[in-house]
What we know:
By secondary structure, this protein is α+β, with helices and mostly antiparallel strands. Helix content is about 25%, strand content about 30%. It has 7 helices and 15 strands. It has a 10-stranded mixed β-sheet with strand order 3-2-1-4-5-6-7-13-14-15. Strand 1, helix 2 (about 30-40) and strand 2 (about 45-50) form a beta-alpha-beta unit. It is elongated. The chain starts with a helix and ends with a strand. GO terms for molecular function: protein-L-isoaspartate (D-aspartate) O-methyltransferase activity. It comes from Pilimelia anulata. Belongs to the methyltransferase superfamily. L-isoaspartyl/D-aspartyl protein methyltransferase family.
Amino acid sequence: MSLPSLVAVMLTALAVADGQRVLEIGTGSGYHTALLCHRLGAANVVSVDIDPDLTAAAAQRLAALDLHPRIDTGDGAAGVAGAAPFDRIIATGAAARVPAAWIEQLAPAGRIVAPFTFGGALAVLDGDGTGAVTGRLHAEQAWFMPLRAADRALSDDYPTGEDPPTGTTGVGGTDVPAAVPAEPDFRLWLRLHLPPGHLVDVVDDAGNPAGLAIHAGTARATADYTGGRARVVQDDHRLWDAVEVAHAAWLRVGRPDRTRLGITARAGGEQYAWLDDPGTGPRWPLPA
Length: 288
């Protein structure tokens, strides 16, 4: 079950009003579902989860409270087309990009609150009436399991092995200070500048974070800050060079926190993250 404090943050961001209909992606234990039913009435709540055991158990728990929302078993990324449109959609599984079905099933002035698989991003996206959604990232970090196996490959902190880089071009230093890779907002910024892959903490003998390993396909780079000096090892792909570039850009724009970032997505069209303004700010495409 999600942390109650994070549930409160997400439900507050959802900003439901009387009479609105909500789609919940990820039924889980049914706790979120019960809260939504209490606020809106069970007739206005639809929930979907890919695990039939979870949906069956949640339905039983809710029925014991005399709550009878619609609970479907299926792929949350597909939504529940037969019950659309929805004024609000809330997800408790992380996606690499906004599923097209969510945008298509959202009412024109609807809202989506959903976590993403990069940097603990939690987005609050509003429909614009033209088949697109846009909005900023919430200040809160939200770490959820990916919706689907395909999204896991695009997410942070799922180690693919800690073998040293092969085809090493050499060992060197870095201009990135030791404290920076551990900053959650920089890691989110970095995720937008790197190819899809993994960011994995390097730990010291006591289990404390001491650096960063980057895995993207067959490319590897590791920065180890133990011993008082930075030591960077990378292969011929030179992934750490991209970290240096991203760090310099981060400094140039004032070390932005995640609330200066946003996401715009169109069903069947482009999806991108942006800084400060979706029309004029720098942008980065979300993984296809």
